[in-house]
């Protein structure tokens, strides 16, 4: 038996492999011929280039050798002492050593010094000394020359230079040369590079030729010129002999090709190729179809007195240029059916319109109205749509279907005999077409309503009005999606337009099915939108906190298509300061609203630490990055973008410190009415880990208005950002200095877009300064003896403000805080009292070490001072500054009606541990 399958007995390559090689080398095909021609041309060009480069290299090498020999000879001839040595008694002895040294140092193959008649005084070959050189007559005449010398002892590139004395007389000759063998060696050294370059060029040319040939082979399917010519002859024969019209229309709407049958059917003029389809006098429907690019199968069109079945397909997927290929069949014998075809065409057109016009919004009622509007007058004279109450509310329908709410009525005028929109429609009689359609789940026809006893018995008075109006026929079809009934559609025809038939049921069901899907989508959107709005409003502030630093007004509107992630906040801070926050989470829906709630909560928590704006945004940036990582790993849907502006206003100094992460800078309206967009350093949105954030500080005059907003206010599809900012500045530039509430009304009145694609948040705050008479401060030396004088000064200040009732408690807490600052802190130590809604006491020092509340043991001598402060103060805490920290306490006031309770120092039962 033979060896392995697929190999010959001689062990050669498989036959299939040899056939593959022969097929690739086959030159009968057009691709093979092109490949062979390209390789031959490449070989000839590369060979010529290599030969030319070899000659050029040899020529350059010889020229280089001549120049080098001439330079060496001239240098030796002009060297000091050469002429004197030639005139010496023994030139051979005088010049031999220098000649050998010059030859070795210059790299020439030989060097000789001769008498003017050519007799060698010295030579690098001692055997030649005394012999006469040939061909040096030109040098003896005073001319330097180079040549390719052929003769004894070797063929060489030689230079001969005369040596002259001071009077210009030739006293000798210097010859230097390089043998031809060494010149050839230089050429040989370049030859491998030339050959390698030629081989690489040949390989590259062959590779590109193979690629081109393969592509040509694919396009020609391996056919040779003869076969291709025969194929195109057959193509033309079939194209013009077939009894079906063929058209090809380019994507520019021009006729590219038309066979004889197409010219006959469409009565095309001569020279129609290249003209626009719309300029050929075709029927509008056919011309519109040919340039529309639509794909149709056996779509019927009238062309003059002929009825044509048209098929269109795109040409691009099959290798042609972009365009449309159309075939036309003459179906004039079906003229009798043209009426039915026209009806079917109108029905298809109506279904197409239904797909386009129904569901343009995500509103349930509007979708029902669109269904009624599409059906009239193309299919029915009147249409009514009823929906279940849960569907109208966006809820999942359940329970009985005997009661529905009328959602839409279309057709006729105000006197139409149908119950108006909003009425409750009941289907209590089971023999009515509506009840039968709901029970069976398909369309029900009532061709003659005059004999529909069940329909008439359900509402005799309404039925009589409808019959008197001319209503004669009805098709009832349930609106179902996912197997769940959403409502009912009723189509009515009056006497002049004829009655419904059985052929209308399928169309009514198709129309209702498309509308039901759109209604169900709108219902689910309504539910999600309501949930998102509820969630978002629950996460936004329901009321503004009480504070005296700012008069604040705000507006918030969710997007009409779905809620987003915009939010705002007003957060009171210690020291009578107030934080203003505006942020935006990119996106819409529940995810954006939930993310907004997380970020708003985070801002509240970070603000409780009393951080500066840049530090707070840094923590928020880290939080957003973590949220992104977690959600991307779990669901692949992280926060695609979030921005935030955080500002802190201090009513004592009037300074507003702010920082932004990808958010628009606020607008400032000064008391004189001038408006400017504040220059706040711009940083990337949250979660991108950019450079550290930077805080900008602006001193605001009292009565200034600070306007914070989100991008939905200034930017939408009909207005760019620059236009929106310019309009905002114009709106805010009101010299009357309106209140924040009036400012909100004016901005929304001027800038609110007709259709909101994004949430809009607006926050307007008018600044106040705390009266200087209500602020008192003292510098405290780092000496425990200074506590008593400061405490006494504070007591006198409280008496001045009329706060004697809380004097003792305040002095006690100040004593503890000042003592802690002196004992554990560092200078400078400062005390400040502020009388606002409450009494605020602040003790600052230069240390960054925060005190901590702890539980003291019964044997501890200290550790209870901060606990006393926490018990007597309404609020207390620590905030850090650039120079240290501030310990603050707040005490609520009772406006004098009832004195604040003073601590009972005799009752120490609230202290930790056993009573002392």
TrEMBL record:
Protein name: SpoIIE family protein phosphatase
Gene3D superfamilies with a match to the protein in the record: 3.30.450.40, Histidine kinase-like ATPase, C-terminal domain, PAS domain, PPM-type phosphatase domain
Source organism of the structure: Streptomyces albidochromogenes
UniProt KW keywords: Cell membrane, Hydrolase, Membrane, Transmembrane, Transmembrane helix
Region called Disordered, residue ranges: 1-24, 893-916
Topological type in the membrane: Multi-pass membrane protein
Pfam families, alphabetized: GAF_2, HATPase_c_2, sCache_3_2, SpoIIE
Domain PPM-type phosphatase: 547-767
Highest rank taxon of the organism: Bacteria
Sequence intervals crossing the membrane: 34-55
Principal localisation: membrane
All copies of domain GAF, residue ranges: 363-529
InterPro entries: Bact_Sigma-Reg (IPR052016), GAF (IPR003018), GAF-like_dom_sf (IPR029016), HATPase_C_sf (IPR036890), HATPase_dom (IPR003594), PPM-type-like_dom_sf (IPR036457), PPM-type_phosphatase-like_dom (IPR001932), sCache_3 (IPR033463)
Subcellular location: Cell membrane
